[in-house]
Amino acid sequence: MTTAPVDVDSARRDYAALVGRGLSLDITRGKPSPRQLDLSADLLTLPNGRYKAEDGTDTRNYGGGAKGLPELRRVFAEALQVPVDQLLAVGNSSLELMHDAVVQSLLSVLPGGERRWADEPRVAMLCPVPGYDRHFHLAQRFGIELIQVPMTEAGPDMDVVERLVAEDAGIKGIWCVPKYSNPTGSTFSDDTVRRLAGMATAAPDFRIFWDNAYAVHHLTDDEPVLADVLALCAEAGNADRAFVFGSTSKITLAGAGVGFFGASAANIAWWSGLVAKRTIGPDKVNQLRHALFLKDADGVRAHMRKHAEILAPKFAAVDRILTEELGGSGLASWTRPAGGYFITLTAPEGTAKEIVRLAKEAGVALTPAGATHPYGDDPADATIRIAPSFPEIGELEEAVRGLVVCLRLAVAERA
Amino acid sequence: MTTAPVDVDSARRDYAALVGRGLSLDITRGKPSPRQLDLSADLLTLPNGRYKAEDGTDTRNYGGGAKGLPELRRVFAEALQVPVDQLLAVGNSSLELMHDAVVQSLLSVLPGGERRWADEPRVAMLCPVPGYDRHFHLAQRFGIELIQVPMTEAGPDMDVVERLVAEDAGIKGIWCVPKYSNPTGSTFSDDTVRRLAGMATAAPDFRIFWDNAYAVHHLTDDEPVLADVLALCAEAGNADRAFVFGSTSKITLAGAGVGFFGASAANIAWWSGLVAKRTIGPDKVNQLRHALFLKDADGVRAHMRKHAEILAPKFAAVDRILTEELGGSGLASWTRPAGGYFITLTAPEGTAKEIVRLAKEAGVALTPAGATHPYGDDPADATIRIAPSFPEIGELEEAVRGLVVCLRLAVAERA
Predict the structure, then answer these.
(1) Transmembrane stretches, by residue range (chains A, B) (predicted)?
(2) pTM for the complete prediction?
(3) Is some CB atom of chain A closer than 8 A to the CB atom of B184?
(4) What CATH architecture does domain B45-295 belong to?
(5) Which residues in chain B have Cβ-Cβ distances shorter than 8 Å to A105?
(6) CATH of domain A8-30+301-414
(7) Which chain B residues are closer than 8 Å to A134 by Cβ?
(8) Angle value at C-alpha A158, between A152 and A159, nearest 5 degrees
């Protein structure tokens, strides 16, 4: 791809005009829009006087077990590819479950492990990049070393992953968003999942942190089927290798939803024994509310199609504008995800920070450049994450056109 | 008090008759009864289509800060004696907040501390006994040493506490249920709170874990006013000493409620910085639901009077039966709490385990003897916790009469 030259004067004029418009637009965060939240309006009146779970448990009281309501776990077992018995419904988000999985691993010996991570001389985790900043921050907070691994369209570069984990017993885990990855939108291939499940690791207590945040978040009818990580791990003799996370955050209400944790029976026993000291049980009323609202896996599918009807035109608009403005210019490439919440724009090397700075000054808020990489450090300074979900389409279009103006100026000034 | 002799034969006959009735009764747990939960029936339809917080935040979405909704924190600031700015509304219970406070203290240096608790050669906590088993279990799980301190009617024996914390830098904290204590029902005196706030501690990062679980849980109109621990700590130059916990678990719905954490500004900053890595925010819809339902501190007071109308007759029934059956016998003493969820029965030394065993065989489930003490070890083997809240009054009376039969037999057999 050859790069078309950008005229500095016209780029400056365009940017001055952009600033002159005094915009205030925000495409930073993967937040559902109010129209998407309206799809779950029934949750604001449910459970509508009911309070008994299907097994007769009074959801308003203590008791009923720490696993969460069976009727809700059943709804998500298929989407998350976890047997119901090994799937817990707990908390209001998956982020806190990932955090707690790290905490429990630091403070208690994992199945297969020899000592607590806190007692290891060094704990490191692999971070496919670009990736999700909150994964990196929560690990970094505990002094865990973050090691970058390149993402491909089929998931992390497995040649690199296999080599690192085989050599280095300090590497205890890998962060994965296996479907419609944040932020590239790619889905791990069967071969990638099989290699993750089967690879030799120097650490006996290596864990895949499988953040299946976008399991049912399709944008098109082309719905890739993710390989079953728990089954493949078991098949390869590494049954305890994967921790599976999910939530209803971008299905129903963000923050007022339900988190899920799935793993091998041994991992679930380990987790449950520890977490029993922390909680008498999850918010079962909210779980009943969700079970009544979503009903079953087909209910989730039907509900997610309504989300797609709202989201797909926004993703299409971003792609259309980028194609109109930058197509064939060689100035940038971008992803065309079939699901999830993000588009990754790859700008010329060394320009992403400047683009984001220029956009900010022009009233267009973007995720900080570098946020997609551990320690906020994108070595190529090229990755920009676009979150099309929250703004209405007119504002989104304006924001993306503004972003293009900033990209052109950054490239022109650098030349 | 002199102990009346118990006739073995009649005690055995009474016990055989009790067993013959094939009871199945449970007075183990401090659970609200269904009638109490019915008081919060409106929560099962609220927020009834509303979703905007008073500051305009869309409670259905991410955002709006990690402190929780101001309108709900305002409702509980008075009862928990924490300034609104220093009171967080988070999670669905206080137990998880206590757990996480211990975890964060293990993994991050506290304000005033020199190193993480995980890096200390030894971490111990004082446990006033009898006390709450879940406090003990969560600390024990992290290898924290538990040191017993006697409870008095005015709180922990402060002569013992002051001596221990002054000498031993390994003692990092004390568990307190300062009002209507679990299980004795006593409320800490002003002098106790003042001494806790002001005492010299060898550990610079000593913390009072102030589990104010029963702040508004009165059974009578005689409502003791607890001294303000945060204010007294600040006054004594130990502003960061107290962590305050509370929840709506026994106000609205157990498990589907809201937890609260209060502390000094420095502690709140410490906590918030760490917890921001764990969560994007609490379940704001549930917080809105609670704010709409309870309205303000007066709303809480009115609501708690309805609880008292249900609970007070149960506590009175236990006291009446114990007085009828054991009054003047010298065989036992028991507490007459003015609030909270428990009555402590003190049996003759060395009989509690046997009483609980006999009761279990007769179909009357009691909290395991020893559960009120760290490591399940009540050195006198004399403390039995009675939880009158859950059963309806007829069953409760039967259970307490059964307990008396078991007590008499255990005493007679031992003699």
Answers:
(1) none
(2) 0.97
(3) no
(4) 3-Layer(aba) Sandwich (3.40)
(5) none
(6) 3.90.1150.10
(7) 277, 280
(8) 115
